[in-house]
Amino acid sequence: PLLDFQKSNTDSKFAYLMRHPTSNNQIGTEVSEAVIHSAQLSFTGTVNNWVAAYLEILYNPEQSFGAGTITSLGRNLLQLRKGFVVFGDLNDFPLYGVIGKMDAPFGQTGSVSPFSNSTMWHAFGGLGYGAQLGFKKWRLHATLMAVQGGAQFRAMHTPVGDSTSVPSMLNNFTADINYTLEIGNGFKFLFGGSYLHGSAYCADFPITHFKPCSDNNPAVTGYGTITIIDRIIVQGGFATTLEVWPGTHNPTPPLDVYEASKVTSLDVGIRYDFNVDGKIVYSVSGEYSDFRAGPDGAPWERQNQIILGFSGMVKKSSKFFLELFRTDGYAPLNFISGSNPDQPFPAGETHSQSDVVTLGVVLGAMITF
Question: Which residues, including other chains, have CB under 8 Å from residue 212's CB and lie 6 or more apart?
Answer without folding.
Answer: 151, 159, 163, 164, 165, 203
